[in-house]
Write a structure and sequence with these properties.
single chain, 155 residues, mainly beta, five-stranded antiparallel beta sheet, 0% helix
Length: 155
């Protein structure tokens, strides 16, 4: 059950590093630039079979040099959950969990999404998910938590 949605505090600047021994890509996808004809990708985060976050990102092909220096602004959402589902040492009491989703990196195939889940004073999970621009990707993040990204149908 989603309790709220909105923007949160921005994470660190999106990395643009190229691994040693590889050539930098000439084109990457990013949701932080605007263009005509952007590829649209749907994002769904589910907890215990219930959608706690849904969104659609417009991904534009661009030069890595054209990426803005500022970090992507995360989408923030709250849901009721059991912290024990994320970290077994946590008490098994239901409470509000804050989730955040943002573009962590621009890649040749799509983007890497950053995901963070926390309770006051503690991060329960901090991870990434590869979100290709043209294919469906599913990732189980924790026992009861998953993410699906897929191309959105053109309207």
């Amino acid at each position: 059950m989603c309790l709220a949605q909105g923007a949160g505090v921005a994470p660190a600047v999106t990395p643009r590093a190229t691994p040693p021994g590889t050539a930098a890509p000439s084109t990457v996808f990013s949701s932080r630039v605007r263009c005509a004809g952007a590829a649209r990708v749907r994002v769904a985060v589910t907890y215990r079979g219930v959608a706690v976050y849904r969104g659609t990102l417009a991904l534009c092909a661009t030069s890595p040099a054209a990426l803005p220096d500022q970090a992507a602004r995360p989408s923030r959402f709250l849901f009721l959950g059991r912290p024990q589902d994320f970290a077994p040492a946590q008490p098994d009491a239901q409470r509000s969990i804050e989730g955040r989703v943002w573009e962590a990196a621009a890649t040749e195939d799509g983007i890497s999404l950053g995901l963070s889940f926390s309770i006051p004073g503690q991060v329960l999970l901090h991870t990434t998910h590869a979100a290709p621009a043209t294919t469906r990707a599913t990732n189980t993040l924790a026992a009861e938590l998953s993410i699906v990204t897929e191309p959105a149908q053109a309207r």
